[in-house]
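ok here's the first one, seq then struct tokens
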Amino acid sequence: MNAPKEPPTLGSVLEEGWRSWRLALRTPGHPFRTPVVATAGDDGGARVVVLRSMDPEAGEWEFHTDARSPKSLALARSPWMTWVFYDAATGVQWRVRGRARLHAGDDVWRDAWERVPEASRANYGTDAAPGTALVAPLDAVHFRDIGPAHFLVVRCRAESLDWLSLRPDGNLRARWVRVDGGWQGSWTAP
């Protein structure tokens, strides 16, 4: 039997997480680019989103959505949410839990809208709200305009981070909680 590899340090694990999230923002197809977000909603509560920004200093992650979507309504009722990032190639999972702030009509919203590619802006201009029943599959493709009326920025300020590494020589897990603007980490049972 092979001896277990030397485990990483808590600091190196957290730094690798920040590096992976930064890389995902620049790399289409990166597994962390499209995490699952779970909310306390009546609609099943979990869906895939596109990671739009991440700020390690602030401990914030961001995605964009239609303001009429079930996830937006769920977050307006209860701001707690969890992001799940998983890389099957490395066996690494991160869960990021925090409180969402919804931005519409403010500077954060305006700055984000300016970065939305022209081809993607139409996603926020459909007549039918996400989840609306349709008679035919293309009924939702009718646009009133392609302005930002239904565009919403969701920023999540993380309160805890949970890392799991599935390894042939033994799984590892660690957790960080926000303390005085920084992160306090500890090893936990996988």
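and now the second one, same deal
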Amino acid sequence: MRMKMKILLLMMCTMLVWSFQAAAQYGDTLNQTDAQGRRQGTWIKKDASGRLIYRGQFADDVPVGEFIYYDDAARIKVRQLMSDSGTRAATTTYHPGGQMQSKGDYFDRLKTGEWKYYDQYGQLLTVENYYKDTLHGGFFVFYQNGDTAEILHYDRGLKAGEWNQYFKDGKLKTNGLFVNETLHDTITFYQPNGKVRAAGKYNHGLKTGAWVYYIETGELERMEHFVNGVKTGQEVMIELPAENYEPIGIEDDGDAR
């Protein structure tokens, strides 16, 4: 009987010590400021309902180390590792299921450098580059097998430079050029067998001049003529059934067809 009492008393003392330690760590030392009003140590933020929004560390009012942000279901939404006197944040975001959604850096709260984006199964979707929160540099899109589907470039938020799309087997599908967000100069569309499907020119987003179209064997199917995006005539060399006719150009979302 005395042995049981001793064990019970020891357990109660241990629990009491733990409670004091927890209070010291997460109670009295939370959200502290020094004599100058600067945030020091561990800080947390909750909304009006008491839901935890974030937890992180401050030193002399500067965020340091890891900050963790939570969603409405108390799941980790964002992790940030602070550096450079709180100006740089190496950031990882997460899908609701816990899988990584994106990874990259913020500088002065603006996206900078390379960012990678993933689906909920861990598949890399895109690799993007930023300058002051604006797309700038290479932009890469990937198929589910990891092969490249598209490569284009941005200059301060505008599509600029060479643009390539690829079939799933890696063969070139489209090759063109963007200038200030619009297609310009020669563009070529390819068939899955590697032969040219169509080719022509854009003048700042408008078809211009002669456009040529080929069938699967590489024979010339037809030639069309454009002025400022308006078709002015055509010559047909090979008549195709209506169901086999496929318009060639750029869809509204920028995808080649």
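notes on #2: The domain at 123-257 is CATH 2.20.110 (Histone H3 K4-specific methyltransferase SET7/9 N-terminal domain). Residues 6-27 have pLDDT under 50 and may be disordered.
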